[in-house]
């Protein structure tokens, strides 16, 4: 789901993300910074999914090439060998954070190496940048960008319709893009490098979800919503003549050109009163299928229809599987089986209760069967079984009454695709994951097919807060939409999110520094308490009691010994309580909406911040006094933390480009603050284990230092800084939270707004494997032939990025692999993803990580890295798999 993310995360971003010129302050001393001087490995703390997947796209030419798009978390490519997803837009940086929202995606069926993504998160002023079309000629390993003169809305209403971006299947230099906001239809004739409006297209759309919404979110014109080519009307190298376009206009939803886009007209005889969410063409049978809803989605929709248009005769046929009076949902997910023309499937995307529905026809919509049906209400019979053992939290810990079941088949099911090369494989997106099956045709034989999550590697949570206690679980998270998790093993999916209660969004959490088994979290819930407590380090929870007036989670702080709590909820003022929050009292001297934190040593000391003022309480939160500290940021885009182990030491990050902005340090309990001159901007600060030989805890910040945005580390109290991420690993906006691990030097956890919890580990410090194998194979040596493709995908002064594909060309499967090579020009690897590596001089060895060690005969596995170079950057001439020399291409 994504409801809360719109109203909480985004509105907070709007106040603090308008990156621009540094604030007008006294000229800082020259900062000491080492850019990308450390070798870090970056991974996700596994959750698997967690957000809405509105689009899945299979390439029509190459088997097993598929992509998924998310509304705020970027795009992904399917890796068949490991059955995982690889993120493709982690290089999107802070200033362009909106480009992590993907409104549409297109894979080129002429040249499968080419892929395109239309990016931009909001069409209103929440997103300060215009949209763009990203183009890649290496399957998303690297990108070029064409900026557009208007915004795109990957997280706007109607984002499940599509695809709005399409490549001509006969002349692949031609692309079309449907725009929102009355901007019309756009075309590129140079493979996405430049775009111009199709001025002759007659309708820019007129449907808005809520014209009265003054924010511009629900009142935007949803515009042109899909483009579909009839490939049978063109020949290779010549532009396809017939093109269909869907428009957000209930009376004029479908347009067509029969002269390769020169002229356009409304398709005659079409149904009215609905929006066409999808238009999918079965060229073999000459049918255009259309899924209609009375609303734009992805949440709403009360009525819907399915129609079939015969492209040769112009005949329209209502093929809806149920009578209009029996629908309480709209149709959206729509796909055809390219191996079995006449097989078509559709979803009831907005059937929230008791479950979504999937329909299937094998006679071009003449008759239909359902994924589930009632036997005798409320009992139901399912054609499928669900196996969520890989993501057990998808049950939500629920125990619903029939006809509801858990796990649900899904909700917001706007993406549905049958693999064009395999009738048995289907994937569909939901509000929380990607589900799929590999035995779909059992549907037709009457036996049950199995649905499983097909989402590993796709991490799509918005992270509001993070904590890494000194004992117990290494990571606790506060997340949008799915609450949060306790990670006892970063490499494994936790069995369940926080429950009892289940917050739709957790806004803040804290633990008692000297008693880490005591944990508190606060969040949003439609009905019920907004605070919960744990006495076993977050493994189990019980609800607290809300004071009067609470409407949302806000921020919360636990006393250092867990004896009391201070809570600043939405809807009322700051409160304090002894014990576990059964009796709250109003704090005095501090304004409502203040951010609150606790001193990590003194259990009676708490801190607050609001509108440029720092507040201190020395009586357990009963009364606060405003500090005389001046020069702090005037707005509320601020995050601060007290240092563990030292009373009264506070670090504060935040600000905005038009005022004070940076990192401040106090050693006197907030009575005064000193601004660090070598940090231009900072948005989150955290602490981790001290470096070997250092006495002060390691500082981590999401900041701008020496003109560079990134994740930085200091081992000397902020005197010098090292950037620990690189340009390939930026993850858009990272300002919500950051924390080091108090037990592992160098490990840092980074909150993203759509890419989940990222954690990095340094080769200079702690373990790079949070769950090391107690008896690892030191050198996997698979037998049989192998082939390697090595490609430099990006190169800049002193640095480069490369992708390596290792193929099993033998006859036996591998259960592990280790690939070796030598660099001829002194190159050094700095970071690796999807592999582990060692380097001694010029010799490099890369080996599998746990999940990609199995490589079937005829399959391949890929990994990538960034490195440094000088002089020349020649590609390695030879590769060895153990003692086996691989073919190089």
UniProtKB/TrEMBL annotation:
The CBM2 domain, residue ranges: 779-889
A UniProt-annotated Pfam family: CBM_2
Molecular function (Gene Ontology), one example: hydrolase activity, hydrolyzing O-glycosyl compounds
Signal sequence residues: 1-26
Region (Disordered): 760-784
GO biological process: cellulose catabolic process; xyloglucan metabolic process
Keyword tags: Carbohydrate metabolism, Cellulose degradation, Glycosidase, Hydrolase, Polysaccharide degradation, Signal
InterPro entries listed in its UniProt record: CBD2, CBM2/CBM3_carb-bd_dom_sf, CBM2_carb-bd_dom_sf, CBM2_CS, WD40/YVTN_repeat-like_dom_sf, Xyloglucanase_GH74
Family designation: Belongs to the glycosyl hydrolase 74 family.
The protein's name in its UniProt record: Cellulose binding domain-containing protein
Phylogenetic classification of the source organism: Bacteria, Bacillati, Actinomycetota, Actinomycetes, Kitasatosporales
């Amino acid at each position: 789901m994504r409801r809360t993310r719109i109203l909480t995360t985004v509105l907070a971003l709007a106040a603090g993300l308008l990156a621009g010129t540094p604030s007008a302050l006294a000229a800082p001393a020259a900062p000491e910074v080492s850019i990308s001087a450390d070798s870090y490995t970056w991974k996700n703390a596994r959750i698997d999914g967690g957000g809405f997947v509105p689009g899945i796209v299979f390439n029509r030419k190459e088997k097993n090439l598929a992509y998924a798009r998310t509304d705020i978390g970027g795009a992904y490519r399917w890796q068949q060998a490991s059955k995982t997803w690889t993120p493709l837009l982690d290089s999107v940086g802070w200033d362009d954070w909106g480009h992590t929202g993907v409104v549409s995606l297109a894979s080129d069926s002429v040249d499968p190496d080419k892929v395109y993504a239309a990016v931009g998160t909001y069409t209103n002023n929440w997103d300060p940048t215009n949209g763009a079309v990203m183009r890649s000629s290496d399957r998303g390993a690297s990108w070029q960008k064409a900026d557009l003169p208007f915004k795109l809305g990957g997280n706007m209403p109607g984002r499940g319709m599509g695809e709005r971006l399409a490549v001509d299947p006969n002349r692949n230099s031609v692309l079309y893009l449907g725009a929102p906001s009355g901007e019309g239809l756009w075309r590129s004739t140079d493979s996405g490098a430049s775009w111009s409006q199709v001025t002759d297209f007659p309708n820019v759309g007129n449907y808005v979800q809520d014209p009265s919404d003054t924010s511009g979110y629900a009142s935007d014109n949803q515009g042109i919503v899909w483009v579909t080519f009839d490939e049978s009307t063109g020949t290779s190298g010549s532009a396809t003549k017939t093109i269909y376009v869907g428009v957000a206009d209930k009376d004029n939803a479908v347009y067509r050109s029969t002269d390769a886009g020169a002229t356009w007209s409304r398709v005659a005889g079409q149904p009215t009163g609905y929006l066409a969410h999808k238009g999918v063409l079965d060229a073999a049978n000459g049918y255009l299928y259309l899924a209609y809803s009375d609303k734009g989605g992805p949440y709403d929709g009360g009525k819907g229809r399915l129609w079939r248009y015969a492209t040769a005769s112009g005949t329209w046929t209502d093929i809806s599987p149920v009578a209009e009076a029996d629908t309480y949902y709209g149709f959206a997910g729509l796909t055809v089986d390219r191996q079995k023309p006449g097989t078509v499937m559709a979803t009831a995307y907005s059937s929230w209760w008791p479950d979504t529905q999937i329909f299937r026809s094998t006679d071009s919509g003449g008759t239909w069967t359902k994924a589930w049906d009632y036997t005798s209400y409320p009992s139901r019979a399912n054609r499928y079984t669900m196996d969520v053992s890989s993501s057990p939290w998808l049950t939500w810990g629920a125990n619903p009454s029939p006809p509801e079941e858990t796990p649900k088949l899904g909700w917001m099911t706007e993406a549905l695709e049958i693999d064009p090369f395999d009738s048995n494989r289907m994937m569909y997106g939901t509000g929380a994951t990607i589900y799929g099956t590999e035995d779909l045709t059992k549907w037709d034989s009457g036996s049950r097919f199995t649905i499983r999550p097909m989402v590993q590697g796709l991490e799509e949570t918005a992270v509001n807060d993070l904590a890494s206690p000194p004992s117990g679980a290494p990571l606790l998270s506060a997340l949008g939409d799915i609450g949060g998790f306790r990670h006892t093993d970063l490499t494994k999916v936790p069995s369940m999110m926080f429950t009892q209660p289940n917050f739709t969004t957790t806004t803040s959490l804290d633990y008692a520094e000297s008693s880490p088994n005591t944990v508190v979290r606060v969040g949003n819930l439609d009905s019920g308490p907004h605070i919960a407590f744990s006495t076993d380090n977050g493994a189990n929870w019980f609800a607290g009691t809300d004071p009067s007036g609470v409407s949302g989670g806000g921020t919360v702080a636990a006393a250092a010994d867990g004896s009391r709590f201070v809570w600043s909820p939405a809807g009322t003022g700051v409160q304090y309580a002894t014990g576990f929050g059964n009796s709250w009292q109003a704090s005095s001297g501090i304004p409502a909406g203040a951010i609150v934190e606790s001193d990590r040593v003194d259990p009676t000391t708490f801190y607050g911040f609001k509108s440029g003022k720092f507040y201190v309480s020395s009586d357990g939160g009963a009364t606060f006094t405003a500090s005389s500290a001046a020069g702090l940021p005037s707005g509320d885009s601020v995050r601060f933390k007290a240092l563990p182990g030292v009373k009264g030491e506070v670090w504060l990050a935040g600000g905005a480009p038009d005022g004070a902005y940076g990192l401040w340090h106090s050693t006197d309990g907030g009575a005064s603050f000193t601004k660090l001159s070598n940090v231009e901007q900072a948005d989150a600060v955290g602490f981790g284990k001290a470096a070997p030989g250092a006495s002060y805890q390691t500082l981590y910040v999401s900041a701008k230092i020496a003109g560079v945005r990134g994740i930085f580390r200091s081992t000397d109290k902020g005197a010098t800084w090292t950037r620990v991420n690189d340009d390939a690993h930026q993850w858009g906006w990272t300002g919500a939270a950051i924390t080091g691990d108090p037990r592992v030097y160098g490990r840092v956890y980074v909150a993203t707004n759509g890419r989940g919890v990222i954690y990095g580990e340094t080769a200079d410090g702690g373990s790079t494997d949070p769950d090391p194998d107690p008896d690892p194979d030191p050198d996997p040596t698979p037998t049989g032939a192998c082939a390697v493709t090595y490609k430099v995908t990006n190169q800049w002064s002193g640095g480069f990025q490369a992708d390596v594909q290792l193929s099993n060309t033998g006859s036996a499967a591998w259960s592990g692999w280790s690939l070796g090579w030598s660099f001829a020009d002194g190159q050094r690897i700095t970071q690796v993803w999807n592999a582990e590596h060692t380097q001694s001089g010029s010799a490099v060895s890369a080996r599998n990580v746990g999940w990609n060690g199995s490589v079937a005969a005829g399959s391949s596995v890929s990994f990538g890295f960034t490195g440094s170079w000088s002089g020349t950057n020649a590609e390695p001439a030879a590769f060895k798999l153990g003692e086996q020399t691989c073919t190089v291409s």
